[in-house]
Amino acid sequence: MEPAVRALRTRMRGPTMRVSALLFVFLAATIPAPDLCGQAPPAAADGWVVEDANSAGLDSDALARMEKAAASGDLKKITSVLVARHGKLVYEKYFDGDANSLRNTRSATKSITSILAGIAIDHHQLPGLDATVFAYFPEKQPVANPDPRKDKITVEDFLTMSSLLECDDNNEFSRGNEERMYIIEDWVKFLLDLPIRGFAPWVTKPQDSPYGRSFSYCTAGVTTLGAVVEKVTKTKLADYAAVNLFGPLGIQQVKWAYSPLGLAQGGGGLELRSRDLLKLGQLYLNGGTWGGKQVVSEPWVKASTTPHAEVDENTKYGYLWWLKTFKGHPAFYMSGNGGNKVAVIPDLDLVVVITSSNFNMRGMHEQTDRLLSEYVLPAK
Fold first, then answer.
1. Are 288 and 302 in contact (CB under 8 A)?
2. Within a 13 Å sphere around the CA of 336, how many CA atoms are in the beta-carbon half?
3. What would the pLDDT profile of 10-43 be if each residue is shown by its tens digit?
4. Domain at 35-100+321-380, CATH from 3.40.50, 1.10.10, 3.30.450, 3.30.1340
5. 3 state SS of 39
6. Dihedral sign (CA 198, 199, 201, 203)
7. What is the distance between the alpha carbons of residues 230 and 119, in angstroms, rounded to a whole number?
8. Looking at residue 37, what is its pLDDT?
9. Are 306 and 283 in contact (CB under 8 A)?
10. How far apart are CA 330 and CA 352, in angstroms?
11. Where are the beta strands (DSSP E) in the chain?
């Protein structure tokens, strides 16, 4: 080794080098980090135009705080957050997996079944909201607990979670609780066999309820609604969705859950990419159009996102879409176990996807609501 080089290395290991290293660390800590939250998401050949969050009026500082909260565990098990503003993808963050990961958003699938029912009505395959459900299943007759009121149960009753069947997923003692359905081979027959619901003195009867309907969350009803769509279209539900909904939106990666008899579960468990979930929200914000094509009619979108039943004093229900106000902004949204949400906020021209794996955890939906309100809705 040359003497000059040896001498230089010796000096670098000395006090001068240590001071220089400390100075470098200090300067690095004081120089602001690049504003990655404000950068545009990567472009991809999936139909999304991208733009940076700041230009779209989002608060990149708030988004950065959200990312820190997720990293620290203050926001638990958040897997992705995406935002579209003015029809463009402006924010995209994955805390688990990446853009190609499929997200099981559980009951958010119900809103997709509503879209498919609307398309079937648009195409004059399903007669309308007043179509009676039991008439489509003569092969499953006779049913248990016969009652003439069963024959009057309509498509709209299942779309609004307000049929008279004794079916309540929020009551573990309910005969129609979805966990009881999953251990039965024929999920549709499970629903058809349920008794008519009784109303205890402390439960508001339909005629005394807002909108004339008594809300009772029932996955089995939506599962059966998917079977009705199959009946009237003479097409498997997954195939009907592929041609009439996912195809026009350019959604290619799809994974359905199925019953033991092969019925695609319209009540939950459909897995899609976060970017594709965002498309579904944007479709409804656009009045049923995507890429200049009318996928589902605007009247159906409006009807689906209008209140038809009351969940509680703060929450209304449309046709398998939830309706609520966040920070003074009216929203309609898809919602699923774990705190999963696809929220559409029309007055801000905003769509938000939040996926989470907080399945069956207390406070899962409250956490998602907090994330939306505190970190996304500072949008200007």
1. no
2. 26
3. 444 454 444 344 333 333 444 434 456 779 999 9
4. 3.30.450
5. coil
6. positive
7. 12
8. 77
9. no
10. 14
11. 78-85, 88-94, 102-104, 254-255, 271-273, 289-290, 293-294, 309-312, 315-317, 322-326, 329-336, 340-345, 350-356
Q: Phi/psi at 325 (nearest 5 deg)?
A: -110, 130
H-type alpha helices, 98-161: 109-122, 155-159
Backbone angles phi, psi at 74, to 5 degrees: -65, -40
Strand ranges of the sheet holding 271-273, from the earlier edge strand across to the other edge: 102-104, 271-273, 254-255
Alpha carbon distances (Å) from 62 to 59, 88, 345, 377: 5, 19, 18, 9
Q: For residue 201, is the peptide bond before it cis, meaning its omega torsion is within 30 degrees of 0? A: no
- Which one, of 277, 264, 258, 286, lies nearest residue 335 by Cα? 277
Strand partners, 214: 310
In the predicted structure, residue 132 carries a pLDDT above the cut 60: yes
Amino acid identity of residue 137, one-letter, is F
pLDDT at 175 over 50: yes
Give tens-digit pLDDT for 329-368. 999 999 999 999 999 999 999 999 999 999 999 999 999 9
Domain ranges of the chain: 35-100+321-380, 105-308
Query: How many Cβ atoms sit within 10 Å of the Cβ of residue 82?
Result: 25
DSSP element (H, E) containing 15: helix 15-30
Phi, psi of 152 (to 5 degrees): -100, 0
Per CATH, which fold does 105-308 belong to? Answer: Beta-lactamase (3.40.710)
Residues in the chain: 380
* Burial class of residue 360, CB neighbours in 10 A (0-12, 13-18, 19+): exposed
